[in-house]
Amino acid sequence: MGVWNVTFDPYQQQDQAQYGDPAAAQSGGQQSEDEDVEIDYEYSVSEEFAYSLDEVPEELRQGDESSSSDYIA
Amino acid sequence: MGDPKISFSGGAFTVTGYAPQWSIGNLGQIKLADHFQIFPPTSFTDPQIKLGLHLIDLTWGRRGHLWLEQSLTAGATFHILRTGASGSLQLNNQLLWQPMKELTFTFHFNLSGTLDDHGVRGTVDFGSQFKIVEGKTVLGGVGLRF
């Protein structure tokens, strides 16, 4: 029998796999068969847009005349 | 067509977010700037940035949900964290409203367009990368097979 390590540490995942999920065991003594899965995916699309002037805030309708250089991204 | 008041070409705004317990669909219900930081192109002027952020709000509000749905028709790769097993899989729309243990994303809005006396028109190139982590059993419940 092993000793439960209830502090999550990714480097202890080997032990968790051997002894089951500590949280599940503590709550009812049942071992969880669930495993975390990481999924990666990408998506891209290109579309045209057109908005009327009514949808543009008044302050922006004046244009680029008041361009400032003090913006810090 | 009136005189251009603000023009911009090829400026990419970037949004990176970490949203544990969110579903992918939740991202389409919000105004991105209210929850995540949006980084504008460094070459943009202040009015260009303000207009760009406004266009992202408008465009995300109208197209964001559809784009998120469409993204789930893409192929994906998976990696089982404990065993290291990996492979490819086909996603599906059942995943849209499934809360995830971890949801990390990066969006790029590459905007080109012009504001004139009639309004603002142009193109948006939207690119996105998603990384989600969830239990195999939960993901199996929404039709994913590994």
Overview of this protein structure:
The complex is a heterodimer of chains A (73) and B (146). With 73 residues, chain A is an alpha+beta fold. Chain A is 25% helix and 23% strand. The longest helix of chain A is centred in the first third of the chain and has 7 residues, at 13-19. The N and C termini of chain A lie far apart (55 Å). Residues 1-31 and 66-73 of chain A have low confidence and may be disordered. Chain B has one domain (6-141). Chain B contains four helices and six strands. Chain B has helices at 24-27, 32-35, 46-71, 136-141; strands at 6-18, 38-39, 75-80, 86-90, 102-116, 119-135. Chain B starts with 5 loop residues before the first strand and ends in a 5-residue tail after the last helix. In chain B, 28% of the residues are buried. The model of chain B has no long low-confidence stretch (mean pLDDT 95). Chains A and B meet through helix 1, strand 1 and helix 3 of A and helix 3, strand 3, strand 6 and helix 4 of B.
